[in-house]
Amino acid sequence: MRNPQPHVLRAHASYLITIIAATLLLCACNGTREQTETAPAPAPTPSQPVLASTPTPSMPTPAQAATPAPAQPQANEVANKVAQIFKGAVEFDAPQQDNVLVGDFNGDGSQDIAVIVRAAPSQLDEMNSEVSNWILDEPQKITPPDPAKPVQPPPAPAKVKAGDVLLAVIHGFKEQGWRNTDAQQTYLLENATGRGLRVEARLAAQSAVKPNALRLRGDVIEQDLNGAHGFLYWTGARYGWFAQTKH
Questions:
Q1: Cα(246)–Cα(146) distance, rounded to whole angstroms?
Q2: Which of 38-47, 71-80, 103-112 has the highest mean pLDDT?
Q3: pLDDT of 99-157, one tens digit each?
Q4: What is the DSSP letter of 226?
Q5: What sign results for the dihedral spanned by CA atoms 198, 204, 209, 214?
Q6: Which residues of 173-186 are buried (b: 16+ CB within 10 A; e: fewer)?
Q7: Are 108 and 125 in contact (CB under 8 A)?
Q8: How far apart are the C-alpha atoms of 70 and 176, rounded to whole Å?
Q9: How many angstroms separate the CA atoms of 144 and 214, rounded?
Q10: Euclidean distance between CA atoms 59 and 173, whole angstroms
Q11: Mean pLDDT in the chain?
């Protein structure tokens, strides 16, 4: 058999090398494509959900309880209060329609009480004593304070006589008002009880007074007294009488 020529061998070798190179390149491309096709795509990172802000439920504000009106005075507690203050110097009958009145007469926010009493004949010295446990005044002799005068003139002294009908005004103390055992400040008013006594609220009474005529500090005790209609009022230091109309 005849040996092939050298140039033929070289051609065959080049052809084989070309086929082998092409085969290797094709295999490499197929492997890369398979990896690309089979490799799972990275899962997208889920964005964190934005939580809707839940409003904090507001606590319901409890309705402010209305301040209960003080209980109406009972005969026994009024009698006990009068006895505590006067210690037998006055006589007190069971409450009638208008002989026990309650209101904030001196405007300090505490409930006061006004009681019609009668001087005990055997206790006149005690009633008129300057060192007694009360202040004795006659409102019709009290003049309204004069702002132009730094020192107000003293009122004429009052004097209790046997059988006199008086109005005892006991100022309240703190929330318990006149029922408080520490409520001791008392004004004993001479010639201050007429007809139709009733309590008039400060604002209502003030609206019925001419502007700048009088400045009220508390509730007033309205009545007909000595031929005039008017009211007892707290001046800031004493109880005075303001006549509105003459009869």
A1: 24
A2: 103-112
A3: 899 999 999 999 999 999 999 989 999 999 988 999 999 999 987 666 677 776 777 78
A4: T
A5: positive
A6: beeebbbeeebebb
A7: no
A8: 9
A9: 8
A10: 36
A11: 80
